[in-house]
């Protein structure tokens, strides 16, 4: 039998008390608090001008290597990884669509994203050609 050391006993008690306090704090938080905190700020948000592309590029290879289909919900972004899913929201109308990044662009100064014709239709921006949008990465 080993003699006990009062200092070590106090450290064990202190660590146990902090652990119990942390568990109590976690237990009092609701699921909604965690969801709100986790979803409070998107991982990526960008606001700027979007344009669309379609017929002239339909069937051509994109930067990712796949064929561009103007009827798919896809987009070109200068830096986001291929396969990233973006929620694109037309700031003026509130209309939004989720697209998948499969190409690079736009190559016009001041624009943040090029969306496919199909995505542009859902955003209500085909007639005007461009729209101010908000981009959010979605999981």
Short description:
By secondary structure, this protein is α/β, with parallel strands linked by helices.
As laid out across the biggest beta sheet, the strand order is 1-5-2-4-3-6
Stretches with pLDDT under 50, minimum 5 residues: 19-37
Number of distinct beta strands: 6
Structural class: alpha/beta
What amount of the residues lies in strands?
25-35%
How far apart are the first and last residues' alpha carbons, in Å? 56 Å
Shape: globular
Overview of this protein structure:
With 139 residues, the protein is an alpha/beta fold. Helix content is 28%, strand content 29%. The chain is built from 3 helices and 6 strands. It has helices at 6-28, 31-39, 117-123; strands at residues 45-53, 74-76, 85-90, 96-103, 111-116, 130-138. The longest helix has 23 residues, at 6-28. The chain starts with 5 loop residues before the first helix and ends with a strand. Residues 19-37 have low confidence and may be disordered.
